[in-house]
């Protein structure tokens, strides 16, 4: 996925910024704090770490913006998440809510080959069960 390592919080925040952008909204710090149930300094701390890794840029009083690398990494995490949750639900029979929670635990670390095989087993679905698009540009058909 990349030549650097993300912590679980970093991966969660990065993918949430991407999700908010997918919704057509700005990923304001206050919105992120609300979604994660944390205080603003916690959000700012994680965003600073992501900025140091070159995944987003921040300007004072503005919502963070993903860099090209940030977009690539975040979309890869979301692709993984959506394939994993579908696999857990369809192939393992887990309830959708549980499948989503479990996928979030490993979506940023699972190997590309494993996700590609899950994707193939699912016949390269277009949407996850949340009806969000699954981008297969990084997954060979």
Structure notes:
- The chain has about 140 residues and is an all-alpha fold.
- The protein has a domain at about 10-70: Arc Repressor Mutant, subunit A (Orthogonal Bundle), CATH 1.10.10.
- The protein is about 55% helix and about 5% strand.
- It contains six helices and two strands.
- A two-stranded antiparallel sheet has the order 1-2.
- β1 (about 55) and β2 form a beta hairpin.
- The relative contact order is 0.14.
- The mean pLDDT is about 90.
Short description:
Helices cover about 55% and strands about 5% of the residues. The protein has about 140 residues and is mainly α.
CATH topology of the domain at 8-71: Arc Repressor Mutant, subunit A
| CATH second-level architecture of the domain at 8-71 | Orthogonal Bundle
Just give the CATH class of the domain at 8-71. Answer: Mainly Alpha
> Superfamily at the CATH H level of the domain at 8-71?
Winged helix-like DNA-binding domain superfamily/Winged helix DNA-binding domain
- The helix/strand series, from N terminus to C terminus, equals HHHEEHHH
Q: Which parts are unreliable, with pLDDT below 50 for 5 consecutive residues or more? A: none
| Outline | globular
Assembly category: single chain
Cα-to-Cα separation, first versus last residue: 18 Å
The share of residues in helices is 55-70%
Query: How many individual helices?
Result: 6
What structural class results from the helix and strand content? mainly alpha
Number of strands: 2
Largest sheet: 2 strands, antiparallel
Query: What integer is the average pLDDT?
Result: 92
């Amino acid at each position: 996925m990349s030549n650097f390592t993300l912590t679980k919080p970093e991966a969660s925040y990065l993918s949430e910024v991407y999700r908010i952008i997918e919704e057509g909204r700005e990923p304001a710090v206050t919105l992120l704090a609300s979604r994660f149930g944390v205080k603003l300094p916690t959000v700012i701390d994680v965003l600073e770490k992501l900025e140091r890794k070159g995944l987003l840029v921040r300007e004072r009083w503005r919502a963070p913006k993903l860099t090209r690398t940030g977009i690539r990494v975040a979309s890869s995490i979301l692709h993984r998440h959506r394939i994993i949750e579908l696999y857990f639900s369809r192939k393992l029979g887990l309830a959708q809510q549980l499948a989503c929670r479990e996928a979030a635990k490993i979506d940023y670390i699972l190997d590309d080959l494993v996700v590609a095989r899950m994707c193939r087993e699912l016949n390269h679905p277009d949407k996850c069960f949340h009806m969000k698009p699954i981008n297969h540009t990084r997954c060979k058909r």
